[in-house]
Amino acid sequence: MDSDGYTSLPRGRHHLTREQVSASQRERMLQGMTDAVGEKGYARTSVADVLKRAHVSRETFYEHFTDKQACFLAAYQAAADRIVGVVNDALADTGVPVMGRLEAALRGYLRELAADGGAARTFLLEVYAAGPAAAALRFRVQRGFVELIAGLLIEDERFRAQPDPEFACGMLIGGIASMVTGKVALGEHATLPKLCAPILAHVSALLDH
Fold first, then answer.
1. Which of 25, 45, 99, 167 could make a disulfide contact with 36, Cβ separation 3.0–4.6 Å?
2. What are the Cα distances from residue 140, in Å, to 80, 84, 144, 146?
């Protein structure tokens, strides 16, 4: 690992396959894009900024991505997949009550965002500077979270009794996203885990209503 935190390929001869080398390069470029946008903003980030952080050539970059936006979208999707994985793991234990699984999923989600302020800024704020395709991707990702959480809450008969359970879940996820984005915009990403308790209290009150 380099001093800047990026994992480089071994120098000289190695036994990595072409696919492994390509995967390593791609991973470093996605991380480079995330870090550069978190530091400079999407508009001021250039392909050269990514190359510098990822330690790859311009030719290598264009072997993987058509342009800066394509790299950003891939980085966003990779981050979303990681967080969805965390949430899915929390929801997988069907032996835990609904609210227990919701708490685990929410804590995991907030913990992931709180761990890296630059990445949180990149994917919650700078995504809107990356054009309509990025905004549409964020909408699809958020829609996926709505489906995940609705699939959990629908197990509770109190939630099924809501006039429109899916709409209620959309409002819940939208509200969480808005609060989280506000914290990140104010530079308060480290405090995100503190949102867990009041959010859970609100959901419990909604179900008990």
1. 45
2. 10, 12, 6, 10
CB 165 within 8 A of CB 158: no
Rounded to 10 degrees, the C-alpha dihedral 21/116/133/55 comes to -30
117, 184 Cβ separation under 8 angstroms: yes
CATH fold group of domain 72-208:
Tetracycline Repressor; domain 2 (1.10.357)
Residue given tokens 């380099």 in the structure block: 2
Q: Residue 17 is encoded by which pair of tokens? A: 């396959």
Tokens of 164: 């429109």
All structural domains of the chain with their residue ranges: 72-208
Look up residue 23 and give its two tokens.
């995967």
- List the pLDDT tens digit at each of the 209 positions of the chain: 454 555 555 555 557 788 888 999 999 999 999 999 999 999 999 999 999 999 999 999 999 999 999 999 999 999 999 999 999 999 999 899 999 999 999 999 999 999 999 999 999 999 999 999 999 999 999 999 999 999 999 999 999 998 999 999 999 999 999 999 999 999 999 999 999 999 999 999 988 87
pTM of the model: 0.87
| Cα-to-chain-centroid distance, residue 23 | 20
Contact 7, 28 (CB under 8 A): yes
Token code pair at residue 39: 């530091």
Q: Is 133 helix (H, G, I), strand (E, B) or coil?
A: helix
Number of other CB atoms surrounding residue 78 within 10 Å: 15
